[in-house]
Amino acid sequence: LQIIAILLALATYTWAVLYYAQEVIYKPFCPRLTTPDTVHVWDKVEFNPQLVNPVTPGHDHPLLGNPTPEVDANWSALLSAFANRIPESEVRRLGMEADAIPFNDGEGGYLVGLAMVHNLHCINCLYQVAHRDYYYTPNTTEKEDATQKSHIGHCLHHIMESVKCQADLTPVLLHWTLHDFHSVINWDGVERTCADWSQLMDWGSEHSVGKSTSISQFTDTKHPIYGNFLNEHGKFSWVDQEGGVNYKEFFKTPEYQKWAKDQGLALGEAAAEEYLKSFYVKQ
């Protein structure tokens, strides 16, 4: 019994030391410990040294080159790779199941993405603004311009917050160059620690909604209200070219009012809001 007591004491002491090291010493510095691994990304993705590529992308860059249908297809493939499915148990670990989107295709789970995808979406938004002549009609309205500025402001703010949150502490030196009258950063030979992008893409592919044979973004996970008003291309018909919607006007349309009546809903935004809140309770 004395030996067992000693072994239990040693095990308890070891556990306490390891727990203290994780929670107090390493957790403030290690993202693997601070990020809840509810989607098992940390299990799959390694972080390795990588040289910075200082070369500005050329016109043939697959994502940042001159706009073409191929570039748009590359962006679509990149962003859609991270529309993923995770089990209900992992959503419950986050404590967010009451306001998450469940799949209704018989396979279970919830729709999830990764925060970095929003950064990529915002970069794509800024890319399109940089090539405005290709992506936008020449005669946008004042309201559409205001919507675009608001979206750009949102994206700039989100990217800035992400940069501050994930502050890259890689030291870089400055040097003189022949064609700059002031000192500039010398990126040559700079090495930093980066996620293995191929492993991350593999994870996205493994968990992608697109791998399901029965799932459809516009059926099994469609918006409880707006998903009932999709055009033949599966898009919400009231979206303008800037991605904006005049919701007040939408709720006044005969189409919505008929749908609301069929659902037993009162007219107006307040009733629609209550319906949306109760949708998760019904699942």
Which secondary structure elements does this structure contain, and how are they paired or packed?
Elements: H1 2-26, H2 31-34, H3 41-44, E1 47-51, H4 69-80, E2 84-86, H5 88-94, E3 110-112, H6 115-130, H7 132-135, H8 142-165, E4 173-177, E5 180-186, E6 191-195, H9 197-206, H10 247-250, H11 254-263, H12 269-282
Antiparallel strand pairs: 1-6, 2-3, 4-5
Note the gap between the termini: 53 Å
**What number of domains?**
3
Taking the sheet with the most strands, its summary is: 2 strands, antiparallel
Low-confidence stretches: 213-219
What sequence of helices (H) and strands (E) makes up the elements? HHHEHEHEHHHEEEHHHH
- Helicity, in percent? 40-55%
Output the structural class: mainly alpha
Instruction: Output the number of helix runs.
Output: 12
Residues in β-strands, percent = 5-15%
Query: Mean pLDDT, nearest integer?
Result: 82
Work out the radius of gyration. Answer: 25 Å
Q: Please state the overall shape, judged from the principal axes of the Cα atoms.
A: flat
How many runs of DSSP E, i.e. beta strands? 6
- For the biggest β-sheet, the strand order reads 1-6
